[in-house]
């Protein structure tokens, strides 16, 4: 019996080795013990291991777009300021208590449903930013107020500044909000965000496999590969291998792409379509499917003078935005 071509080929898991870290530490002349930043994204890594022993001085770790299911072996990172674990398979927030300098944590598009596991971060007093967009828990009613009430040290949640009025509301109604969150956690439901995270991971993995075997001749530019599937669907693609953040703020979707501060803007091209955004950087592609339709004619792309980052602001088409319903909490009215 022939095997269906729809079945996904089992990926090859990659272990974190000294050689892999040295390859990623060229900017540090291959020295790994004193390394302060490491990029291990899109490597099919399924377990965080060894780097706490080999690179104890790390301040920034990029581990997005891998196959990691558990946060582990990070307690020794006393100097760690930024940990990016977006686009993985993490279900619980744990084992970060020892990261006393942790300032920013990105868990975008994982499988976190147990929002109450955030209590493990209550003693991470330096934590100012956390991203949970695209996790099942982010769809919970009172999600934002619960996170703010649980982690009062936060200044920003999902890229949106925490307001003083939100802190007051979260504190005044925390017992009720917590009971609602725990009840939602106990209900097992089908969750589209998990499917979306898995689909993006699968697309990125397939893209890497195709690029590894494709003809690399100049006559076949990388930007022409894997833009659209055989059935006409636009695909996610990060051939540019850049770090990015895609968040929703009110009625706007904002894409932030990390770029070198002094990169010439003429080397960057941005194209916003109603359902996806395409950025070409030095001839290489970053293409992302959007969660809702946007107004491409009103979208704006700008460079940050301070950091050089590219920021693309895309207003949503308002008739497809679903308003939040907080009508069943009369106690959340403005507090004097």
Protein architecture, described:
The protein is of the alpha/beta class and 336 residues long. It has six helices and 15 strands. Mean pLDDT is 79; it is low at 1-10, 214-226 and 320-336. The strands form three sheets. It has a seven-stranded mixed beta sheet, with helices on one face. A four-stranded antiparallel beta sheet has the order 8-13-12-11.
Could you give a quick summary of the protein structure above?
18% of the residues lie in helices and 18% in strands. The chain has 336 residues and is α/β, with parallel strands linked by helices. A hairpin with a 2-residue loop joins strand 12 (276-281) and strand 13 (284-289).
Beta-strand percent range: 15-25%
Secondary structural class: alpha/beta
Number of DSSP-assigned strands: 15
- Report the mean per-residue pLDDT as an integer: 79
**Could you give a short account of the major beta sheet?**
7 strands, mixed
Euclidean distance between termini CA atoms = 71 Å
Strand order of the largest sheet: 1-2-3-4-5-6-7
Counting DSSP H or I runs of 4 or more residues, the number of helices is 6
